[in-house]
Write a structure and sequence with these properties.
alpha+beta; Alpha-Beta Plaits; 4-stranded antiparallel beta sheet; 6 strands; 20% helix; elongated
Length: 110
């Protein structure tokens, strides 16, 4: 069965909420990495100071391709701020996964 990697870049204060929502939806396997960057808004200006790299969290999970829509809805619903969302809520990147190996056994998962 084809698998995909879902990488979600979310606000740090929303990361735990997204992880909990994924767990409740049946997706407990998540890797969390602290990252920094900027999006279309090109950072944040406070007075005369511009913060061009903002802290974010990247959450990664590998899932069967057929379950993509459920996972995307789960992440979007739990990462969005306010009713319709705001700039800086994040992005989701979806990529195919060609192979997965288990380190302890050295076996290719199928």
């Amino acid at each position: 069965m084809a698998q995909i990697l879902v990488r979600s870049i979310v606000r740090p204060e929303k990361a735990h909420e997204v992880i909990e929502a994924l767990l409740e939806a049946g997706y407990p396997a998540v890797t969390r990495v602290s990252v920094a960057g900027r999006g279309r808004q090109q950072g944040l200006q406070v007075g005369e100071v511009t913060y061009d790299e903002l802290p974010k969290e990247m959450l990664m999970t590998v899932i069967p391709e057929g379950e993509k829509d459920l996972v995307l809805r789960t992440v979007m619903g739990s990462a969005r701020t306010g009713e319709s969302g705001n700039y800086g809520d994040g992005k989701i990147f979806v990529s195919p996964v060609e192979q997965v190996y288990t380190i302890s056994s050295g076996f290719l998962e199928e």
